[in-house]
Amino acid sequence: MKRILFITSGLTHGGVNKSLLSLLKVLDKQQYEIELFSIYQSGPYMEIFSDYNFVSLHNLIPSFLHYDQTKEKNIFTDLYLKTLIHLFPMRYCQKFGDILSSRQYDIVVSFQEGFATYFATFVKASKHIAWIHCDYSRYLKITGKDETTTYQKYDDIVAVSNYTAEIVKKCIPCVANKVMAIHNVMDDQDIILKSHEKTDDKRFVKNKLTLVSIGRISPVKRFVEIPQMTKKIKEAGIPVKWYIIGDGDSEKKELIKQISVNDVENEVILLGEKSNPYSYLGQCDWLVCPSSSEAYPNVVNEARILHTPVITADFPSSCEVVDIGKTGFICSIDKIADMIIELYQNKEEYKKLICETQKFVYDNDSTVCQIQNCFDI
What we know:
Layout: E1 2-8, H1 15-26, E2 32-38, H2 45-49, H3 57-65, H4 74-87, H5 89-101, E3 105-110, H6 115-120, E4 125-132, H7 136-143, H8 148-152, E5 156-159, H9 162-171, E6 179-181, H10 188-195, E7 209-214, H11 226-235, E8 240-245, H12 250-261, E9 268-272, H13 278-281, E10 286-289, H14 298-305, E11 310-313, H15 318-321, E12 328-331, H16 336-345, H17 347-357, H18 365-374
Helix pairs in contact: 4-5, 11-16
C-alpha cells in the first residue's frame, strides 16, 4: 500500500479543494493510504477533510516547540505559524518538512501552486507530484516569481487541461518532459444529489430567463460586465434574473456600483457564497461564464453534469469544456448578451440544445486511470 500526502494551501471554498475532495473519493482505499496537510488550517474544508486523515498542525506543534498542546494555546499557535510563514518561510519549510518526512510517505503531492508547491519539496518521499490548477502565465504575471528551481525538483507535473499544460511547458521549458494534462475528477453523483435539495435563499426566484454565474468576484471572472449585459437583455424586453454566487472584496464594490449605474438592481442579485450551489445551478436556464481565463472550470463541468446549458467567453480552455451546440456555446464577451437574447427568442434552438445536454455523461474512468499511472513509482 502506497502512503500519499496531499498538500494544499488553505481550507476555503473553491475549485482546488473541491477537486481534491472529488479525487479522494475515487482513490482505492485498499491501494492508497492518504493523508492531507494544509499550510493554513482554518476554513470550511477542515471538517470535510477530517474524514481523510487530516494532519493537524496542532498535533505537530509539540514536537517543534517542545510543549504539550492544549486548546488554550491554539490562538497563540495560529498567530505564531502565520508569522513564521510570512517572515521566515524557509524556517517553516525546514521544520515542518522534517516533521512530515518522519511520517514516511511514498508520494508527496502539492495540490496547489504557490507556497504549497515550494513547501512540498521539503517533505521527503520517493516521488513528488505537482498539480497546477491555474493559467500559469497569468500566475507568473501576478507573482513575478521564477519557480523553475522548485519545479525541477518534481518528478511529474500535472496540469488540469491541455491548454494549461502547454502554458506550463512554454513558461518552464526545462520541465516540459514532466508535464501532463489530467482533467479534474468530478463527483457527479454528489452534484446530482445536491441539486435536488431546496434552495436556501428566498431571493432566488425562477424567472422567464434565469441566469447563474458562479465564482469568486475577481477581475479574471469579469462579473463587473454582467450588469451591462443584463441591461441589454432587459431592454430587449426579456424578463431576466441574473444570480451571482460567490464573494469578493474590492471587485465586489465595483460590481455593486455597475449594478446601480445600469439600473438593474432588481435583475442582478448577489447571493454570496453557497455551500450548495448545485440547487441553483440545476434550476437555471443557463450558466454563464464570462471569465477572461480559466484553467479548467469546474463550474462548467458541474453545469454539464446537471444538463444545464452553458455560455462561456472564449477563454483558451473553453473548447475543452464546451461541446458547441451540444452542451453550450462559446463567444467573445461582447457578444454574450446578444447570444442570450437570440437563444431566448429562438425556442426551437434552445429545445434542441436541451435534448443534447441530456446525453452528456462525465468521464471519470479515464481520468482515474491517468492518476493511478501517475502514482506508479
